[in-house]
Amino acid sequence: MTSTSGVRDAKRLPAALENLWDRVVSRELSGADGPGVVYAYRNHGLWKAGRTRNIQRRLREWAQDCPSSNREWVGWRATPYVNQTEYLLHLALETVCLSRPRFQCNCGKTHLELFELGDDSEMAEDLILEVMEMVVVFVLAKY
Ligand SMILES: [Zn+2]
């Protein structure tokens, strides 16, 4: 079981998120950015989006660092600028989510960038995949 104690909502106001988005997309891309994969999974009713340069390695790392029988991978998408894509994806998910809890997990870590997307898990899965697709398409068109 994963503890829900210590959950605290870190969701920011829509106007602040919009400002951040504008500021981030008006800047030059970091030279350290490059190709990779953004991914999404569900765990204990919460949704997570992350990034990696190597999806197979990341799958193994998650399995080792935070063992959980409930983790369910729902999708991933390749992108030429994985850092920027993940950052924008987190902003977009924070905008549409119900809450963004700081989650004290039984693996000993506080997981960040988790999103509560509602009780209907099918709708939530559609939503997170749709947002991921939109952000990747945005990044492909812009850079
Ligand atoms: Zn954990």
UniProtKB/TrEMBL annotation:
Q: Which Pfam families match?
A: T5orf172
* Residue intervals of the Bacteriophage T5 Orf172 DNA-binding domain: 36-129
Residues annotated as transmembrane: none
Its ancestry begins with:
Eukaryota, Fungi, Dikarya, Basidiomycota, Agaricomycotina
Taxonomically, the superkingdom here is: Eukaryota
Identify the species of origin: Collybiopsis confluens
Output this protein's name: Bacteriophage T5 Orf172 DNA-binding domain-containing protein
